[in-house]
Amino acid sequence: MATTNDLKNGMVLKLEGGQLWSVVEFQHVKPGKGGAFVRTKLKNVLSGKVVDKTFNAGTKVETATVDKRGMQFSYKDGSDFVFMDTQTYDQMPISPEVVGDAANYLLEGQDATVAIYEGAPLFIELPASVELVIEYTEPGVQGDRSTGGSKPARLETGYEIGVPLFITTGEKIKVDTRSGEYLGRVNS
């Protein structure tokens, strides 16, 4: 148990009926009249739904002990993604539902953080950006400039993103894992 005064970003709370919610943002508010309160933005750990919730200051909230472990993506087994714990070398198969959008950026050997609650994987966190090679994109045309538009490009993971017109097949680029945006070329 903790109180709303102890909230931190990333903390996981157990609310209504045992649902797990991760704290995305919080703000302590002390109005001129009345009691202080805490305004929060919470994300449902399983569904990904984000809600705004307000608590009175000092309200007791139940925290969930979520174990975040450094793991490495090993291989795909059927539809499951198999991760290896980098400390114990234990293998853990994780369903595509839990992996979610992270699957778009996973290559064998990719490091990730796996959040585990009561032995079950909840979600996967990747680094903010990853470096991937472009498997295919239409060739650029003479006169294409960096200020121009964008074109679709298929990454080595099979995921498609928009890249500037001057990018060519075989180039290594940096991609934001949260938004799927092109961040720049990687000079090798």
From TrEMBL:
The keyword Protein biosynthesis applies. Pathway: Protein biosynthesis; polypeptide chain elongation. It is found in: Cytoplasm. Residues 68-122 form the Translation elongation factor P/YeiP central domain. SMART domains: EFP, Elong-fact-P_C. Residues 130-185 form the Elongation factor P C-terminal domain. The keyword Protein biosynthesis applies. Keywords: Cytoplasm, Elongation factor, Protein biosynthesis. Pfam families: EFP, EFP_N, Elong-fact-P_C. One of its GO terms (molecular function) is translation elongation factor activity. Signal peptide: none annotated. PROSITE patterns: EFP. Belongs to the elongation factor P family. Involved in peptide bond synthesis. Stimulates efficient translation and peptide-bond synthesis on native or reconstituted 70S ribosomes in vitro. Probably functions indirectly by altering the affinity of the ribosome for aminoacyl-tRNA, thus increasing their reactivity as acceptors for peptidyl transferase. NCBIfam families: efp, PRK00529.1. This is Elongation factor P. It comes from Streptomyces thermolineatus. The lineage of its organism: Bacteria, Bacillati, Actinomycetota, Actinomycetes, Kitasatosporales.
